[in-house]
Amino acid sequence: MAHQAHAYHMVDPSPWPLTGAIAALLLTSGTAVWFHFHSLTLLTMGNILLLLTMYQWWRDIIREGTFQGHHTPPVQKGLRYGMILFITSEVFFFLGFFWAFYHSSLAPSPELGGCWPPTGIITLDPFEVPLLNTAVLLASGVTVTWAHHSIMEGERKQTVQALTLTILLGFYFTFLQGMEYYEAPFTIADGVYGSTFFVATGFHGLHVIIGSTFLAICLLRQIQYHFTSEHHFGFEAAAWYWHFVDVVWLFLYVSIYWWGS
Amino acid sequence: MYYKLNAVTQRLIKSAPSAYNPQGLRITVPTELPPMIFATPTKYVSEAGNMVEYLGHNKVPDLQKLFQKSDGVPVHLKGGLMDKMLYRTTMALTIGETLYCLMAADACDQLPPLQGSSRILYHSD
C-alpha cells in the first residue's frame, strides 16, 4: 500500500452522504405527507435512516481518528474550524427567533392590548424554576470545564465523574423544562407570545438534548480510553457546543423570561 | 525456625529456640517473611500503573491494529461482519424508501383536484 507524503486526510469512499441525503428527502416529504394525509410511515422511515446514517458516519470518523491516526494537527485544525463554523451557524439560527421576539415585544400591536406581556397572558415567574434552570446550566458549565482539566491532567476517574455529573445536570434541566411546559398557563397557540416563547425555548431544549447526547458519547469514549491528555478534540467540540447551549439559555432567560414578564 | 516432634500427633510443630536463648535477647519478628500464597492473584499497585483497570481495560491498541491492516477494505466495512450487515440494511432501506417516496409522490399526483382550488393536473399529452 502506498504511503501518503502529506499530513492531510484523503477519506475512503463512503456511502453515508448519500444515505443522509435520502434521509433528508424522506424527512421532508414525510412531514408533508403527515400534514396532508395523516400517515407517519415516510417520516418514521426517514428518522430510522437518519439515525443509521449518523451512527455509522460518526463511528467511521472515530475509526479514522482514534484507530487509524488520520487526525494529524493540520486535520485537527480543519475540524476545529468546522465546529466553530457550525456553532456560528447555530447562533444565527437562534438570532432569528430572538429577532422575532423583539420585533413583537418592543412595539406590541393593538391586538395584544398594546402591552407586553400581552393582555390575558399569565407569565412564568422568572425567579422560580427558570432561575433554577439557569443555576443548573451554569453548574454544568463548571463540571464540563472540570472534566476538561481532568482529561488534560490524565485523571481518568475524575474525568468520568465530572462528565457524568455534567450529563446528569443536562438531564435535570430537560426534566425541569418538561415540567414547566406541562404546567405552563399558556400554549404555543396563545398568540405571538406563545409562538415566540415555545419556538425559542423549544429549539433550545432540543439543543440541550443534542448536547447531552454528544457528551454521553464522549463519556463512553473516555471510558474506552479513546482520549489522551494531548488529543481529545471530540470532547472539546462537545464542550464548546455545551457552552453555546448555556449562553443561548442565558439570553433566553434575560430576554423572554425576565424582561418579557 | 525451630521444630520439634509432637509425640501425640506425630507431626512437626514450631517451637521456641531453646538451644540458644541468652538473657536479654528479645525475640523479635523474623526478618524474612514466609512466602505468601494468594488464593486469588493480585497485582502490586506499582505494577498496575496509573489506574488499576477502572471501568475496563484499554482495547485501543488492538483496535488500532485491526483498523490499520493493509487489506484495502474501506473504513465503513473494516470492522467485520456487523459492518457489512448494518451497511446492507441501511442501503436496502435507502433504496426501498426512495422508491416508496416516488410512489407516494406519484399517488399524490393522481389525486383529483380539491374542491374550490385552482390546482392544475399535468396532462400526459
Query: What does the largest sheet of chain B look like?
Result: 2 strands, antiparallel
| Element order of chain B: H for helix, E for strand | EEHHH
Provide the succession of SSEs of chain A. HHHHHHH
First-residue to last-residue Cα separation of chain B: 113 Å
- Total number of strands of chain B: 2
Helix content range of chain B? 25-40%
> What count of domains describes the coordinates of chain A?
2
GO molecular function (chain A): cytochrome-c oxidase activity
Keywords (chain A): Membrane, Mitochondrion, Mitochondrion inner membrane, Translocase, Transmembrane, Transmembrane helix
Main location (chain A): mitochondrion
Pfam family, one (chain A): COX3
Could you walk me through the main structural features you see in this protein, from its secondary elements to its overall organization?
The complex is a heterodimer of chains A (261) and B (125). With 261 residues, chain A is mainly alpha-helical. Chain A folds into 2 domains: 1-70, Helix Hairpins; 72-258, Cytochrome c oxidase, subunit III, four-helix bundle (Four Helix Bundle (Hemerythrin (Met), subunit A), Up-down Bundle), CATH 1.20.120. In chain A, 75% of the residues lie in helices and 0% in strands. Chain A is built from 7 helices and no strands. Chain A has helices spanning 16-37, 41-67, 73-106, 129-152, 156-183, 191-223, 233-259. In chain A, helix 4 packs antiparallel against helix 5. The mean pLDDT of chain B is 76. Chain B is mainly alpha-helical. In chain B, strand 1 (2-6) and strand 2 form a beta hairpin. In chain B, strands 1-2 form a two-stranded antiparallel ribbon. Classes of the chains: A mainly alpha (261), B mainly alpha (125). The A-B interface holds A 1, 12-16, 18-19, 22-23, 25-26, 29, 33, 41-42, 45-46, 48-49, 52-53, 56, 60, 63-64, 66-69, 154, 156-157, 160, 223-226 and B 50-51, 54-56, 58-60, 63-64, 66-68, 70, 72, 74-76, 78-79, 86-87, 89-91, 93-94, 97-98, 100-101, 104-105, 108. Chain A: GO terms for molecular function: cytochrome-c oxidase activity. Chain A: It catalyses: 4 Fe(II)-[cytochrome c] + O2 + 8 H(+)(in) = 4 Fe(III)-[cytochrome c] + 2 H2O + 4 H(+)(out). Chain A: One of its GO terms (cellular component) is mitochondrial inner membrane. Chain A: Belongs to the cytochrome c oxidase subunit 3 family.
